[in-house]
């Protein structure tokens, strides 16, 4: 009845993942191979048809911080006088020894090995579980960014040593996390569970929910919102436990009480669609979606998008139609980087939908936001724009049109596969290549594209000028600078 966003719990398997500052405190990375970056977490390896309706997993990204003005960031060098003398009234000297650091213009990152050994030495000086947790997280992150040489006939041993080194880092990290988890350290319980759920530190790097689920439950009992949400997804899908909708609801409600946007969104969708043993209640569902939208994050913008769709069509006696507000909600989600919302706005500004003016610049802007995240329909929309261009906004480029079409086709968009086949057959934006064109036609035909089947049934695709029968585009020589608007674009550039 209502749209549901596919989702995956957050993943430390993703190379862009960084744990939140809530778990790490004010940790600063010390390695050139393990700098903090913005997260785009996704659970990998979970079958698509078994993913729960909730969106991407909850995660608060922590971006890189500027160097501390008091010189406490990690730098290379060995100047003994680079550390301030402690104030007579200050607290005792910290456990971590930064005397080797050199601030200022002479600053340089430590080597990977030196950084790791330094961190290990400092972590062994204390029994503080928080510091040990930081070190374990650092090792997991370092294992994902550790460079592995491309294997050739002459460096097999070197590659094997690099892989063994990475596995050793993971073993050391998971062992430290397990020790802390057994002692009741909540962040370690959750992080270790997340590792198991994503095949880190497991047999053959396979997901192990049998070990992850109990740890999610333990961390949830200690009040960890993400763990409550993840335990709910496990109970809903039978990952590491029996499918129990009632138990999943308990975990979702516990996370929602802590204002977890993903849990609130899931409860809203359950109320709207009558899932998880709930009776349909659009009014309650909208309430949950509004609460989730108020706390939307880059990982959970889905409630904004869903509310926009609901305001676009309305719900009798619950939600009125409001195109202007729907567009505003889509814009908020797009600002958080949500590709479906950005693509929808691109359509609105291209065709003048939902009260939006026809604006090529804004249309291309929002399509580009979605396309940068591999949204295949947005990629193909850019193909259409590049075929005709937009004066003062986007230069006409057959080459760019072909590249975006190929990206959409590689993402599985059938009509893009046909378009790529035609571009290769005719030579639009690329050199003519009949054999490659036939391959793309076959892929499109196998997925039900009748035009591709028709071209394959002919004796052989024949090169023809743009604008012939069955052509992907129709345009004259004046397109590049004709100043045509979106309506002319659709007339002269037909991509079906």
Word description of this protein:
This protein has 496 residues and is mainly alpha-helical. It folds into 3 domains: 1-64 and 94-258, Alpha Horseshoe (Serine Threonine Protein Phosphatase 5, Tetratricopeptide repeat); 301-373, Tetratricopeptide repeat domain (Serine Threonine Protein Phosphatase 5, Tetratricopeptide repeat), CATH 1.25.40.10; 380-496, Tetratricopeptide repeat domain (Serine Threonine Protein Phosphatase 5, Tetratricopeptide repeat), CATH 1.25.40. It is built from 20 helices and no strands. The chain has helices at residues 21-24, 112-124, 129-145, 156-182, 186-197, 209-221, 225-237, 245-257, 261-273, 282-294, 302-313, 323-335, 339-351, 360-371, 376-388, 398-410, 414-426, 434-446, 450-457, 486-492. The longest helix has 27 residues, at 156-182. The chain is globular, with a radius of gyration of 27 Å. The protein starts with 20 loop residues before the first helix and ends with a helix. InterPro entries: Chitin_Synth_Reg (IPR051726), Sel1-like (IPR006597), TPR-like_helical_dom_sf (IPR011990). Residues 1-10, 28-38, 78-90 have a biased composition (Polar residues). Residues 1-99, 452-496 are annotated as: Disordered.
Succession of helices and strands: HHHHHHHHHHHHHHHHHHHH
Strand content: under 5%
What is the CATH-assigned architecture of the largest domain?
A: Alpha Horseshoe
Count up the domains.
Answer: 3
Report the mean per-residue pLDDT as an integer.
78
Q: Are there runs of 5+ residues with pLDDT below 50, and where? A: 5-98, 463-470, 474-496
* CATH fold-level topology of the largest domain: Serine Threonine Protein Phosphatase 5, Tetratricopeptide repeat
Rg from Cα: 27 Å
What fraction, in percent, of the residue positions are helical? 40-55%
Q: Describe the global form.
A: globular
Oligomer category:
single chain
Distance from N terminus to C terminus (CA atoms, Å) equals 28 Å
Number of helices: 20
User: Under the CATH scheme, which class of the largest domain?
Assistant: Mainly Alpha
Structural class: mainly alpha
State the total count of DSSP E strands. Answer: 0
Largest sheet: none
CATH superfamily of the largest domain: Tetratricopeptide repeat domain
Biased composition (Polar residues): 1-10, 28-38, 78-90
Protein name: HCP-like protein
Region (Disordered): 1-99, 452-496
Keywords: Repeat
């Amino acid at each position: 009845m209502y749209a549901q966003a596919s989702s995956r719990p957050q993943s430390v398997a993703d190379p862009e993942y960084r744990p939140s500052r809530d778990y790490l405190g004010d940790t600063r990375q010390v390695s050139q191979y393990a700098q903090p970056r913005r997260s785009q977490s996704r659970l990998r390896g979970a079958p698509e048809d078994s993913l729960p309706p909730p969106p991407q997993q909850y995660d608060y990204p922590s971006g890189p911080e500027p160097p501390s003005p008091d010189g406490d960031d990690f730098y290379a060098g060995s100047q003994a006088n680079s550390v301030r003398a402690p104030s007579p009234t200050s607290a005792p000297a910290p456990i971590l020894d930064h005397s080797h650091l050199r601030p200022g213009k002479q600053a340089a990152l430590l080597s990977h090995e030196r950084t790791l050994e330094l961190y290990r030495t400092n972590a062994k000086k204390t029994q503080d579980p928080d510091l040990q947790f930081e070190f374990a997280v650092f090792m997991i992150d370092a294992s994902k960014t550790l460079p592995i040489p491309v294997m050739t006939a002459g460096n097999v041993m070197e590659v094997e040593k690099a892989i063994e080194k990475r596995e050793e880092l993971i073993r050391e990290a998971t062992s430290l996390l397990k020790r802390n988890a057994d002692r009741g350290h909540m962040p370690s319980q959750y992080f270790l569970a997340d590792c198991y759920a994503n095949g880190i530190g497991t047999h053959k790097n396979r997901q192990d929910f049998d070990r992850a689920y109990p740890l999610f439950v333990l961390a949830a009992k200690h009040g960890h919102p993400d763990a409550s949400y993840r335990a709910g997804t496990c109970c809903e899908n039978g990952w590491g436990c029996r499918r129990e909708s009632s138990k999943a609801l308990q975990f979702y409600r516990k996370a929602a009480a802590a204002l977890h946007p993903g849990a609130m969104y899931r409860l809203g969708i359950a109320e709207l669609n009558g899932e998880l043993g709930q009776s349909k209640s659009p009014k309650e569902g909208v309430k949950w979606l509004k609460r989730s939208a108020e706390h939307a994050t880059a990982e959970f913008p889905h409630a904004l998008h869903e509310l926009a769709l609901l305001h676009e069509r309305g719900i009798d006696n619950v939600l009125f139609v409001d195109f202007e507000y729907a567009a505003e909600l889509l814009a908020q989600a797009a600002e958080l980087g949500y590709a479906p919302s950005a693509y929808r706005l691109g359509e609105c500004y291209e065709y003048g939908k939902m009260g939006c003016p026809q604006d090529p610049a804004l249309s291309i802007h929002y399509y580009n936001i979605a396309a940068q995240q591999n949204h295949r329909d947005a990629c193909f929309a850019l193909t259409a724009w590049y075929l005709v261009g937009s004066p003062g906004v986007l230069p006409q480029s057959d080459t760019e049109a072909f590249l975006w079409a190929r990206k959409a086709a590689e993402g599985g968009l059938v009509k893009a596969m046909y378009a790529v086949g035609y571009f290769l057959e005719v030579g639009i934006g690329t050199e003519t290549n009949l054999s490659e064109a036939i391959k793309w036609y076959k892929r499109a035909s196998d997925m039900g594209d009748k035009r591709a089947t028709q071209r394959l049934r002919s004796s052989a695709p024949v090169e023809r000028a743009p604008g012939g029968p069955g052509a992907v585009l129709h345009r004259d020589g004046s397109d590049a600078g004709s100043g045509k608007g979106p309506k002319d674009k659709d007339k002269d550039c037909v991509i079906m």
